[in-house]
Amino acid sequence: MKVALIYNENIIDPNDVINVFGTSTKEHYSSKAVERVARALEKGGHTVKVVEGDIHLADELKEFMPKVVAGENPGMVFNMAYGIQGHNRYTHVPAMMEMLGIPYIGSGPAGHAIVQDKVMTKIVLQKNNIPTPGFWVFRTPEDTYDDLVFPVIVKPKLESTSMGMEVVDNWNDLRAAVKVQIEKFEQDILVEQFISGREFAVGLLGNSPDIDVLPIVEINLDNPDQIQTISDKKKMGGVEKTCPAKLSKEKAEEMKQMCRKAFSCLGLNDYSRVDFRMDKDENLYILELNSMASLGTGGSFYYAAQTAGYTYDSLINKILDVAVIRYFGSSIQQQDAGVDLTQPLRVVARTYLRGHLQSLKETLRGFVNLNTHVYNIENVNQLGTTISKRLKHLGFSEHIHRQHDVGNFYYFKNHSESENDVLLVSHLDTHYGPDDLISFYEENDKILGSGTAESKGGLAVMLGALHALRFAKKLKKIRCAILLTTDDSLGGRYSKRFVKEYSKKSRYILGLKSASKDGGIITTCYGRSDYQIRFTSTAEQSGSDIHGIIPVLAKKLSAIEKLSKDEKDYRLRTTSIISKGSHGQTPNFATLTLICSYKTTKFGESLDSKIQTIMKKREAGSPKLDVSINKIQTRPPVLEEPSDTKFYELVEDLAKKHEIKIKKHSQLISSDISNVPIKLPALDGFGPIGHHYRSTKEYILHDSIVERAALLASVLFKCAEK
């Protein structure tokens, strides 16, 4: 990978900027430090160019960085530039990278802007109930506060590395310190309650929800009232440190949780350092965060990383790697270098996927932990955008079908022809509401969480298969298309016409729901009909004191339950009962929602007749009701056609070569392949092996991610050969 390492010189050259004005940066890396990072990246197998972060930066990057839109692999910026001048200097290079469309390590402009401003940081911490010392802001030395309690520590609000810090215990010294710092740093001054006690620094590496907290470092102060000054930090090796710090297990865990929460609340990325004080009663306070933690060999961040087992080279490459995963969902570490691409695709794909399993799991974690309930349109679209970025990185173009009632539908192609070799179909929505969501977690050989089996595991498998094909240099040989819908929980109510339209342009259609426990590939699935049934008291009885609709509904629900009990060819499920009364009176109207699944169209017709009879039947002694039955046939059943049988035989042959067991499976829950026109070869179940759809126990098997992604890669390539 091409990596541009950006840094700043310690003296502003007038040729580096249009004008010289404002506060110039007091922070920069030495040339030796920059060279050390460059060597570490080169040892990691990357092509590195060191670029000064000045007026010429965009032109330098334009010449060096790959043209991803032309199909080249992406490059990255390793940002070591603190900015040249002005306030919020940390934001300058990240903001330029955002504008230029170049991925970079570290936090974005918003995160840097908040964290560089110590006052804003403390406000955010307070709003999120994260302990931080009390504070006051001085714009002039004459400012006064009735609630100020000494001793306090005085520091400029927009600087770091302990610049200008001074502890004072009276108003005269405070005003003098504020006056000096305003003149020196040209900014407001933060006056903070001084916490006497122990001091700690905690390094963070990774991104939410997988943030790795490095071993805690204690700054060994001579006494609880000492502070660590900038001159202390510049001494050889800095202040003496202890790592891991001597803390109780409970206190260390409390500190780690505070760090993770602060990192997430402040919107930081990739790596950071959090500074703490702990008073004599062991109360913890976050002093500040550094969104560009020092990568110097004498800093606490590297000191903690060493304790965690990193070398300097591996730490630098790890920081790059977590940024790459954040952008593209997969690692670029050089574990791929030893793979022999002349081997069969199944061998190359499996080797690649095994080396990237952790990355795929982290991708899946992010998918699962995002609540994409069918009516949570914002989150559904966020997941679509996330996957879109990954697919564009793989060379796919995007077409969005914008929706209003549900999230947008996404259609992707990696070619420009009218016909696809293969169409992959999956969905972004789930039926889990905010109170039902089960977060990603692992238990023995299983990965559990909402949507793991039904859709999100399949999306991770798809990305793994496509990455493996690209690595094997096979992806461009496949005319591949992908349709992601957002209304599966509604039975494909709005998307069925798009499934039909894009299926007609494709030779093969694959669904990404999970395989059954025995490895089943879905060759048939049940149809689905939704019913909305409204009961209303008749006009002559609406004013009477009837117990009304509730007893009637109870009898009808009992009849429905008996109808589907022990029945294998169809199922009925009540999903909603709403009963209300006009003007606060006894309920006199109600709405009942049913979802029905049936094996064949004939069973669906029979079931419909029975539902009509049950709902319209009037029991003796019951009030007369008007019954309105609205049937929405959302998906027809799928029966195995000769084209499906032939396609399954192709998949079965590939599975044998992979030494993976598969079998035909009939699925009770309907699928998007229900809307694929007859005679087109369509199969579902190419996601990981899973079970317990739409329940708190929903899971997939850990190792099946690799197996099914490797099989999917082979099937996609075979579809292009046929």
Q: What does it look like?
A:
By secondary structure, the chain is α+β, with helices and mostly antiparallel strands. It has five domains: 2-104, Rossmann fold (3-Layer(aba) Sandwich), CATH 3.40.50; 134-193, ATP-grasp fold, A domain (Dna Ligase, domain 1), CATH 3.30.1490.20; 198-327, D-amino Acid Aminotransferase, Chain A, domain 1 (2-Layer Sandwich); 345-525 and 638-720, Zn peptidases (Aminopeptidase, 3-Layer(aba) Sandwich); 528-635, Alpha-Beta Plaits, CATH 3.30.70.360. The chain contains 19 helices and 29 strands. Strands 8, 9, 10, 11, 12 and 13 form a six-stranded antiparallel beta sheet that branches. A six-stranded mixed beta sheet has the order 14-15-19-16-20-27, with helices on both faces. Helix 14 packs across helix 19 (704-721). The protein starts with a strand and ends with a helix.
